[in-house]
From TrEMBL:
GO biological process: malate metabolic process; tricarboxylic acid cycle
Catalysis: reaction(s): (S)-malate + NAD(+) = oxaloacetate + NADH + H(+)
Family, as annotated: Belongs to the LDH/MDH superfamily. MDH type 1 family.
Protein name: malate dehydrogenase
Higher taxonomy: Eukaryota, Viridiplantae, Streptophyta, Embryophyta, Tracheophyta
Residues of the full protein shown: 66 to 408 of 411
Quaternary state and interactors: Homodimer.
One MF term in the entry's GO annotations: L-malate dehydrogenase (NAD+) activity
E.C. code: 1.1.1.37
UniProt entry keywords in alphabetical sequence: NAD, Oxidoreductase, Tricarboxylic acid cycle
Top-level taxon of origin: Eukaryota
Domain Lactate/malate dehydrogenase N-terminal intervals: 29-171
Domain Lactate/malate dehydrogenase C-terminal: 173-338
Organism: Rubroshorea leprosula
GO CC annotation, single: mitochondrion
Length: 343
């Protein structure tokens, strides 16, 4: 919401400066692949609200026509187009600036995210192959789980197609930050809008590492609060899976988080010089090839990774960082091997 609001405010500010020549134009094309799903539908609605979007391309293997017809009646700038099935995928992606991928199956109680690998790995591989063929310059946002493996899968596919730009491939971990901000604000009685907690590592269980010592505004936690908050943030996805009792995983909070990441990407593409988000990306901040951290976004994707968050960690955070590495490393290798074995 802050990102969406920021964009509207920016539009107003620019309009005030010189309404005849500095109007922000809705000029970016966004595609959602898996748009008829639990995340896809509310995400499409939120992206439809963005003043920066001129076209919203909705793709799914079924049921996307009705979603697009419905959304197209909202009187916001973007044109909504629907695309169904593999034969329409290339047209969906043509000329697109940002591709968001929430296609794939969600967890049921008792499953890990890695249990989704066998189905979702193939889906992500195929969709990213089409992105490589049709809009290789686009920012790619991967939501489909297991993100710790699907991002390395996407990177391998793009490499094989000769179009890999590590600055433009993102695993969406914004929901971990959204959750951390919410839980910390509740626990410490802080104003929600002020709270920002960097979350690093990956997006599954212990690989999700909130750096509570880096919370803004500065706030102190007891050891017990750190432990309880860390575990709650790491298991928040499971909390939703269990509450939904077989009907899927987080969709609404995920759509909110993904829309924030889309809006941040569009603001960066539009020249905003002050856009920072956490994301799971190719990284040299640790000895792992992919790692989530705060990144600065610019017109060409990632401008810089932010190493300072990993400096001066507490003993608890340092230990948790070392402890997450074997699982994250194995998930990365599983993704890379999946693509390399098939070629
Ligand atoms: P869902 O089943 O409600 O929707 C998935 C959609 O993907 C469906 O509409 C389905 O038709 C579509 N789909 C399946 N195969 C496709 C293909 N080959 N091409 C295009 N579309 C295809 O699931 P959901 O709740 O929306 O979750 C989607 C994914 O997002 C899951 O893998 C879930 O684990 C993941 N997820 C990630 C995060 C995160 O933080 N990164 C958060 C929540 C969920
Ligand atoms: C989440 O964190 O909510 C998602 O990764 C979905 C899940 O399976 O928990």
């Amino acid at each position: 919401a802050a990102a969406l609001r920021g964009s509207f405010i920016r539009k107003a500010q620019l309009s005030n400066k010189s309404s005849h020549c500095l109007q922000v134009q809705a000029s970016y094309k966004v595609a959602v692949l898996g748009a008829a799903g639990g995340i896809g539908q509310p995400l499409a609605l939120l992206v439809k609200m963005s003043p920066l979007v001129s076209a919203l391309h909705l793709y799914d293997i079924a049921n996307v026509k009705g979603v697009a017809a419905d959304l197209s009646h909202c009187n916001t700038p973007s044109q909504v187009l629907d695309f169904t099935g593999a034969s329409e995928l290339a047209n969906c992606l043509n000329g697109v600036n940002v591709v968001v991928i929430p296609a794939g199956v969600p967890r049921k109680p008792g499953m890990t995210r890695d249990d989704l690998f066998n189905i979702n790995a193939n889906i992500v591989k195929t969709l990213v192959g089409a992105v490589a063929d049709n809009c290789p310059d686009a920012f790619i946002h991967i939501i489909s789980n297991p993100v710790n493996s699907t991002v390395p899968i996407a990177a391998e596919v793009l490499k094989q197609k000769g179009v890999y730009d590590p600055k433009k491939l993102f695993g969406v971990t914004t929901l971990d930050v959204v959750r951390a901000n919410t839980f910390v604000a509740q626990e410490k009685n802080l104003k929600l809008i002020d709270v920002d907690v960097p979350v690093v590592g990956g997006h599954a269980g212990v690989t999700i590492l909130p750096l509570l010592s880096k919370t803004k505004p500065s706030v102190s936690f007891t050891d017990e609060e750190v432990k309880n908050l860390t575990v709650r943030i790491q298991s928040a996805g499971t909390e939703v899976v269990e509450a939904k009792a077989g009907a899927g995983s987080a969709t609404l909070s995920m759509a909110y988080a993904a829309a924030r990441f889309v809006e941040s990407s569009l603001r960066a593409l539009d020249g905003d010089d002050d856009v920072y988000e956490c994301s799971y990306v190719q990284s040299d901040l640790t000895d792992l090839p992919f790692f989530a951290s705060r990144v600065k976004l610019g017109r060409k994707g990632i401008e810089t990774l932010i190493p300072s968050d990993l400096q001066g960690l507490t003993e608890y955070e340092q230990k948790a960082l070392e402890a997450l590495k074997p699982e994250l490393k194995a998930s990365i290798e599983k993704g890379i091997n999946f693509v390399q074995k098939q070629s």
